[in-house]
Amino acid sequence: QVQLVESGGGLVQAGGSLRLSCAASGSIRSLDPMGWYRQRTGRQRELVASIRRGGGPNYEDSVKGRFTISISSDNAKNTVSLQMNNLEAEDTAVYYCYLDSIFGGRYWGQGTQVTVSS
């Protein structure tokens, strides 16, 4: 069993910043890749950023230079964070963290709403 608990999100004005965090626990390993997807209204879920310990981050083109993903491991818990700066109205979405287990399977967080007002 793997549990992912997200925090952060909320309402912010355009140009503002938010930080999302996601703590993973259970049957995980520190090298499990993690990342963030988002789903905007009327659109498919899309990958925003991904990372794994010892590897470089990957970003969707529209967030490069504005978002920063980071990952840490401590006491059998992995935490992935997404620092979002210079937010735009188009960033409004439900954001989901995920973890890809080395034992197989992808696990998801519950989702957190980010709303950017213009």
Fold and architecture overview:
The chain is mainly beta. The protein is 0% helix and 56% strand. The protein has no helices and eleven strands. The chain has strands spanning 2-7, 10-13, 18-26, 34-39, 46-51, 58-59, 67-74, 77-84, 93-100, 106-108, 112-117. Strands 2, 4, 5, 6, 9, 10 and 11 form a seven-stranded mixed β-sheet that branches. Strands 1-3-8-7 form a four-stranded antiparallel β-sheet, with no helix packed on it. A hairpin with a 6-residue loop joins strand 4 (34-39) and strand 5 (46-51). 31% of the residues are buried.
| Class from secondary-structure proportions | mainly beta
Largest sheet, in brief, is: 7 strands, mixed
Q: Unreliable stretches, pLDDT < 50, 5 or more residues?
A: none
- N/C terminus separation: 40 Å
Helix percent reads under 10%
What is the average per-residue confidence, as pLDDT, rounded to a whole number? 95
Please state the CA-atom Rg, rounded to the nearest Å. Answer: 14 Å
What general form does the structure show? globular
How many H/I helical runs? 0
Counted beta strands: 11
N-to-C SSE series?
EEEEEEEEEEE
Estimated share of beta-strand residues: over 45%
Q: What topology emerges from the helices and strands here?
A:
Layout: E1 2-7, E2 10-13, E3 18-26, E4 34-39, E5 46-51, E6 58-59, E7 67-74, E8 77-84, E9 93-100, E10 106-108, E11 112-117
Parallel strand pairs: 2-11
Antiparallel strand pairs: 1-3, 3-8, 4-5, 4-9, 5-6, 7-8, 9-10, 9-11
